[in-house]
Amino acid sequence: MSSLSDQRLAALRERMAATGTDLVAIGPSSHMIYLAGLDPHGDERPVMLLVAPGHAGFLMPALNVDSARQKTDLPFFPWRDDDGPDAALADLLKASDLPANPSVVIDETMRADFALLLLDALPGASRRFTDDTVGFLRARKDDAEYRLLKASAVLNDEAAQAGFDALKPGITEEEVAAVIRDVYKAAGASPVFTSICFAGNGAFPHHHTGQTQLKAGDAVLIDIGGRLDGYPSDMTRVGYFGAPSEEFEKVYAVVESAVQAALAAAKPGVTAKMIDKAARDVITEAGYGDCFPHRTGHGLGIDIHEPPYMTATSETVLDEGMVFSIEPGIYLPGKFGLRLEEIVILRADGAEILSDMPRDAVIR
Questions:
Q1: Average pLDDT of the segment spanning 65-86
Q2: Is the peptide bond before 191 cis (omega within 30 degrees of 0)?
Q3: Which of 24, 203, 225, 241 could form a disulfide linkage to 234, CB 3.0–4.6 angstroms apart?
Q4: What is the model's pLDDT at position 1?
Q5: How many whole angstroms separate alpha carbon 38 and alpha carbon 35?
């Protein structure tokens, strides 16, 4: 039904051949969306896509067959509640024509009971997760995915700007979040998260937007993301309500320098840990090392958080087409937090920023 699905299944089979994989088992997850364009109802009823070199098919609860059929032409092996999934799974595995003791890749997001159902039916199978198969493919975005991510990022710029434009004395974090959510909805997108942080709330890296009211002298951190045409955005910008304090300006300059250092380090062939190191060294040398408690970035695609991860220990070698965040921060309890976040796609000559919104602190 989808030429894109056909292309991705073909690419997966190439990776399977290169990695000696006999079967890839995918649950109702973003991996399934990527491979088959299908996002079936997920509950306790086992559903999975099994891809072998010469066959691909779905174990599918019978009550979901008609709905799911609208999205894929791959064969279904349906099962009813009063029969259970074992016989249908056995038929699907027989059609997959696996060797003895197959090498199986298991979707790491699959429910444990689904995975064990499959592995119990394959005694002697070796298993691993999707890093070098589906994960490998998903980490390298094609042109179509780039266009979707770029459009989502540009909409996010508009939403963030609307949030800063709404700032006024006494407005609450939640009221600013509502303004931002309206921008997404007006564009046909769905809000995913809106973290609005006034003053000391910004010192909590994962602050939950609440009823704190804005007052003069408050720093403002806006970290938001929406989903447009299936692909998300994620961006953080900061501002100040009133004349910025010297401390805010000092910390802002350090974080901006850290972003620039990480952007300069981001090139194909570099390990992910070097991106983290580039940002972290700037912050540490400025005396704020203990105030930067999280990784420098995460991958972004169908999921807002997906590989690769820019951590101090990641040996992942970065490649063209990878999309990830660069988001160093400094958090001063009781005062403010300051994080600047860009989503970039890696090109042959370095990182291309998806957002068009400047990182300058917004002064209101």
A1: 95
A2: no
A3: 225
A4: 52
A5: 8
Phi, psi of 304 (to 5 degrees): -70, -35
3-class secondary-structure state, position 129 = coil
**Mean pLDDT of the region 96-125:** 97
Q: Are 26 and 96 in contact (CB under 8 A)?
A: no
* Block residue for tokens 């063209």: 320
- Which two tokens mark 334? 């009781």
- C-alpha 100/C-alpha 334 separation (Å) is 61
Q: Is the dihedral of CA 99, 77, 27, 232 positive or negative?
A: positive
Tens digits of per-residue pLDDT, 61-75?
999 999 999 999 999
Phi and psi at residue 325, in whole multiples of 5°? Answer: -90, 155
Residue type for 19, please?
A: T
Give the SS3 label for residue 269.
Answer: coil
Contact 165, 316 (CB under 8 A): no
SS3 254: helix
Measured from the Cβ of residue 353, the count of other Cβ atoms closer than 10 Å reads: 16
**CA gap 276, 292 in Å, rounded:** 11
Structure-token pair, residue 150? 């770029």
Q: How far is CA 112 from CA 91, 116, 197, 202, in A?
A: 21, 6, 37, 37
Half-sphere exposure of 185 (CA within 13 A, CB side): 7
| pLDDT tens digits, one per residue of 114-163 | 999 999 999 999 999 999 999 999 999 999 999 999 999 999 999 999 99
% of the chain surpassing 70 pLDDT: 99
